């Protein structure tokens, strides 16, 4: 099976990962592949949680493909070839972003559509097969700094210690409170709530027009007044009469579900004031006030009987991902909270895991721990900030209220509508090509580049001291000389 990192660290540490979501299992896998001992603590009682669709951009899909292989990944993924844009109220086709094979080839990956639960289970399997110890039903009450060993205090009375604690416990991270040394989460409501739902294929195929959506390899987006909806098919792995090894059977590639996601204003979402991020709140679809919808979208929502709800809470940027002792670090949404149902949040979490695991696969001395942790934040902070900013802007673009900005958007999209098909160079096409530029990022390369440029530099300096060499300045590290 393909692996996360290609070598084990000379010095192996014990890690505790708080949180068993996508970020937690991904970082557990990469650290285990680097030879470290990893324990994951997850407060949910079992694996599996309410979930809807997950868009997997090329920068994430190529990581998953490296980890499990293209054939295995294809069993639970549907290829996204286009993103058509519609008016939510009228159903008018406004534009169509084509994710063409030649463009995707440049990024090194594919744009995939999957189910969150399938990716979660995949990462859990990878982590446990690599050696991670996973405990479910464990609530962390407190995280205590310590040098050389921090600790976690559990609800059941146990205190566990490790060399490093990784906070992968999401936007409401308890680990982040220790890192920032604050008691309260200063998150404020954004005014929007995200919903996710699933329509079984057996239901959606009753409608010929909706059946076409299920059968297409597209991720359509409907843009409305302060709200938007996106959806896509989901491929589920099923066993046929020929057995699990029959990878070419049509039954194993059937699109068995249609995933729906909504970004809705709180006043029409029926969101209580005390609700925060969760995805564990299940509400009837009838509790949401939709207003005017195109006939097709209205029928689609009528088939979605219930929704998973997560409120979008806004926070200021988190400046510190590492505590003062350099023994506690944040990854995923604990470090950079994302708006719920965003396309790039999971990808950023997996990239975090790759960078952290790659850096620590080079660990040979405890003196390197602070350097590696700070390098991790240095490598990842700018990347996640920029991608988060771009995605928030794209989401706002989809839910413009009536007014001049929305009129200008619609006029631009209508002018560019035909340019997607004839290959001409329109303004909307340039915008989407700019977004696609984010897909070419290589997380492992970023970590390896830092190691080659700076990490080995520092290692050479330490070795020079050990063997009687010295350097006068940091700038002179490359010019080591014998003691006189």
From TrEMBL:
The protein's superkingdom reads Eukaryota
Q: What is this protein called?
A: Uncharacterized protein
Q: State the organism of origin.
A: Phlebia brevispora
């Amino acid at each position: 099976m393909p692996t996360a990192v290609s070598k084990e660290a000379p010095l192996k540490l014990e890690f505790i990962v708080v949180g068993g979501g996508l970020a937690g299992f991904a970082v557990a896998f990469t650290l285990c592949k680097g030879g470290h001992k990893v324990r994951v603590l997850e407060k949910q009682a079992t694996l599996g949680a309410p979930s809807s669709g997950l868009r997997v951009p090329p920068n994430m899909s190529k990581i998953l493909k490296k980890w499990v292989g293209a054939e295995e990944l294809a069993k639970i993924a549907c290829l996204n070839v286009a993103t058509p844009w519609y008016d939510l109220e009228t159903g008018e086709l406004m534009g169509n972003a084509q994710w063409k094979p030649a463009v995707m080839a440049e990024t090194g990956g594919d744009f995939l559509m999957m189910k969150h639960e399938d990716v979660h289970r995949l990462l859990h399997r990878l982590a446990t097969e690599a050696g991670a110890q996973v405990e479910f039903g464990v609530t962390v009450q407190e995280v205590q700094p310590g040098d050389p060993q921090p600790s976690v205090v559990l609800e059941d009375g146990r205190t566990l210690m490790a060399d490093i604690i990784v906070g992968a416990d999401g936007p409401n991270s308890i680990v982040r409170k220790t890192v920032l040394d604050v008691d309260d989460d200063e998150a404020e409501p954004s005014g929007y709530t995200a919903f996710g739902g699933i329509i079984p294929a057996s239901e959606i195929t009753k409608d010929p027009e909706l059946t076409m959506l299920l059968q297409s390899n597209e991720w359509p987006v409907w843009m409305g007044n302060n709200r938007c909806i996106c959806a896509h098919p989901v491929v589920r792995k099923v066993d046929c009469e020929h057995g699990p090894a029959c990878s070419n059977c049509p039954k194993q590639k059937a699109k068995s579900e249609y995933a729906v996601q909504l970004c809705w204003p709180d006043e029409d979402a029926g969101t209580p004031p005390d609700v925060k991020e969760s995805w564990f709140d299940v509400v009837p679809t009838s509790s949401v006030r939709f207003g005017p919808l195109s006939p097709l979208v209205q029928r689609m929502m009528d088939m979605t009987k219930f929704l998973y709800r997560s409120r979008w809470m806004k926070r200021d940027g988190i400046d510190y991902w590492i505590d003062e002792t350099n023994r506690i670090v944040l990854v995923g949404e604990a470090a950079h909270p994302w708006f719920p149902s965003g396309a790039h949040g999971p990808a950023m979490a997996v990239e975090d895991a790759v960078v952290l695991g790659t850096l620590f696969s080079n660990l040979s001395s405890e003196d390197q721990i602070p350097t590696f942790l700070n390098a991790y934040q240095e490598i990842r902070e700018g990347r996640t900030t920029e991608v988060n900013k771009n995605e928030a802007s794209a989401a706002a673009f989809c839910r413009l209220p009536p007014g001049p900005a929305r009129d200008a958007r619609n006029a631009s999209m209508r002018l560019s509508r035909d340019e997607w098909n004839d290959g001409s160079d329109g303004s909307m096409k340039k915008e989407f090509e700019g977004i696609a530029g984010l897909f070419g990022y290589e997380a492992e390369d970023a970590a390896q580049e830092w190691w080659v440029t700076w990490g080995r530099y520092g290692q050479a300096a330490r070795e020079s001291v050990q063997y009687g060499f010295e350097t006068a300045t940091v700038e002179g590290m490359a010019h080591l000389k014998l003691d006189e």
